[in-house]
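Narrative of accomplishments. A recurring question from our advisory board has been how the design workflow behaves on a single, concrete structure rather than in aggregate. To address it, we present the structure tokens for one chain from the evaluation set, followed by the sequence designed for it. No filtering or post-editing was applied between the two.
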């Protein structure tokens, strides 16, 4: 229903003067591991027992295309439709690497050879992303078994490797930036604490001994954390400013 509403909203933007909406035929293409068991009527999702409420509840049915119910030979249509449906059908199979060459061989039926590389890239990108278990050597072997033309195969492999390098560089940069931010935060916190300790000690010294001499101010400004801690302890027993810094 959400998808249908979005389509109708888009239609209204494109046809602001229209007085009616186009019909939409909902179709679910299912290729999950388990059997599809959900009711295909929208009203079945609504929790209601009172039949008088039925008039106020949207209702429609969707068509179900369960790929697991068909054999590979029963998958019909144009070549790209068959390739897509077969790939969806077998994407979760443990022996996908064995089935993939046969599926990709159908690319030989594509009329426009210049589109083969683009189609191949989309298909294999989906395979790699969905399964996360195909490396460069496996892809090369699959492409060889698919009888993909050598130049097309090499072009794809080169592009695949180059994209992997770019992605690795990008991830490295992101990690470097993140580490830099964390280090910057830590350094900022450390510097802030140290400056705070300087200010607190200077305030305490001014309160006890009055206005500090210039040499004492310079020592405070250039002091490290350990010196500040040491001088703060001396402040408890010192009788004058010189006993603090000596």
């Amino acid at each position: 229903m959400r998808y249908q509403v979005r389509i109708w909203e888009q239609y209204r933007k494109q046809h602001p003067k229209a007085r009616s909406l186009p019909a939409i035929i909902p179709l679910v293409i299912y290729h999950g591991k388990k059997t599809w068991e959900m009711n295909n009527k929208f009203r079945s999702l609504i929790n209601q027992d009172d039949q008088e409420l039925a008039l106020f509840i949207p209702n429609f049915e969707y068509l179900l295309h369960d790929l697991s119910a068909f054999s590979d030979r029963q998958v019909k249509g144009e070549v790209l439709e068959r390739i897509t449906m077969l790939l969806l059908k077998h994407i979760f199979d443990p022996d996908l690497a064995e089935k993939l060459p046969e599926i990709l061989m159908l690319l030989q039926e594509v009329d426009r050879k210049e589109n083969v590389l683009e189609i191949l890239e989309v298909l294999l990108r989906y395979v790699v992303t969905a399964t996360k278990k195909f490396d460069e050597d496996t892809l090369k072997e699959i492409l060889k078994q698919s009888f993909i033309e050598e130049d097309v195969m090499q072009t794809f492999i080169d592009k695949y490797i180059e994209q992997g390098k770019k992605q690795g560089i990008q991830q490295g940069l992101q990690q470097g930036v993140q580490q830099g931010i964390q280090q910057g935060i830590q350094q900022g916190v450390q510097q802030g604490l140290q400056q705070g300790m300087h200010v607190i000690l200077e305030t305490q010294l001014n309160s006890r001994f009055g206005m500090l001499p210039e040499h004492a101010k310079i020592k405070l400004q250039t002091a490290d954390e350990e010196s500040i801690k040491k001088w703060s302890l001396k402040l408890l027993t010192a009788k004058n400013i010189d006993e603090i810094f000596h």
